[in-house]
Design brief:
This protein is 45% helix and 15% strand. The chain has 261 residues and is an alpha/beta fold. Helix 5 links the parallel strand 5 and strand 6. Helix 1 runs parallel beside helix 2. Bound molecules: nicotinamide-adenine-dinucleotide (NAD).
């Protein structure tokens, strides 16, 4: 039987740029495969439509919406239309994230603010707009995609990103405590080194060849390989499901053992 039957999930950053299996697209598809109705939100219209196409081909329910997670009005509108159509939101999944290099001496102030807005303020904004409805239902599960880099150096000098992700962990546990008595659970996943299309664009510039990047990321992980977007999505399904009914305020590493290395 389906583990998320009759649930409604809103996934921010569900497009994965329309290329391959990024964390957001895999999460949206994984939720739908477990029976959830999915609202897939992204900046990239074509990409979220592709995510919904995959879900509909598998006879799932998906609506695509375009919104910028750093824009309060657009987040509010995505939440409002979801409630209008489906009547409730059981699962809020925050996948949007942006990693960028940045020696603090060189980093333009606007890039710092962008990193904080995209990685951290977005999580605040989506929770701000979804929580009132979860409170009314006295139930809900929020899954925030943080990063292992929130708690340890994973090989990349991304100070603004790492700082923002560390704050996502603390935001997760704070809100988990504030809303625990309402039956709302708030958890985070800290992916380690994951083999998603985004890394080939964002990180490959730091290596001479793509093969070098892949080999180094595989070698850095105790299990000898990068994770896949499905490793992250499967953890999200569990945290979002009733199987995790007594789990809240947790930041779960999905990292092939890197956090204890
Ligand atoms: P992804 O393929 O899921 O793509 C992210 C999506 O977010 C893209 O479709 C993009 O269009 C969308 N997006 C970007 N800015 C947006 C905005 N302002 N508003 C709305 N949508 C926006 O990317 P991914 O590499 O799989 O990573 C997703 C998450 O996983 C991020 O939070 C990232 O920090 C985290 N993460 C990834 C890794 C990794 O190795 N790939 C490791 C640790 C954490």
């Amino acid at each position: 039987s389906h583990r998320l039957a009759n649930k409604v999930a809103i996934v921010f950053g569900a497009g994965s740029d329309g290329k391959g299996w990024g964390n957001g697209k895999a999460a949206a598809v994984a939720y739908a495969r477990e029976g959830a109705s999915v609202v897939a939100v992204d900046l990239n219209r074509e990409a979220v439509e592709q995510t919904c196409d995959v879900i509909r081909k598998e006879n799932g329910v998906c609506r695509s919406r375009v919104a910028d997670v750093t824009n309060a009005e657009q987040v509010a509108e995505a939440v409002r239309t979801t409630l209008e159509e489906f009547g409730k939101i059981d699962i809020l999944h925050n996948n949007v994230g942006l990693a960028q290099m940045g020696d603090p001496i060189e980093l333009p102030e606007e890039d710092w603010h962008k990193a904080i807005n995209v990685n951290l303020t977005s999580v605040f904004l989506t929770m701000k707009h979804v929580l009132p409805h979860m409170v009314k239902n006295k139930s809900g599960a929020i899954v925030n995609i943080s990063s292992l880099s929130a708690i340890r150096y994973t090989g990349y000098p991304y100070p603004a990103y790492n700082a923002a992700k560390a704050a996502v962990n603390q935001l997760t546990s704070s809100v988990a405590l504030q809303y625990a008595s309402y039956g709302i659970r708030v958890n985070a996943i800290m992916p380690g080194l994951i083999d998603t299309p985004l890394i080939y664009r964002q990180i490959s510039a730091e290596y001479n060849t793509v093969e070098e990047m892949v080999a180094e990321r595989n070698a850095q992980t105790p299990m000898g390989r990068m994770g896949s977007a499905w490793d992250v999505a499967n953890a999200a399904v569990f945290l979002a499901s009733d199987e995790a009914n007594f789990i809240t305020g947790v930041c779960l590493p999905v990292d092939g053992g890197q956090s204890v290395q």
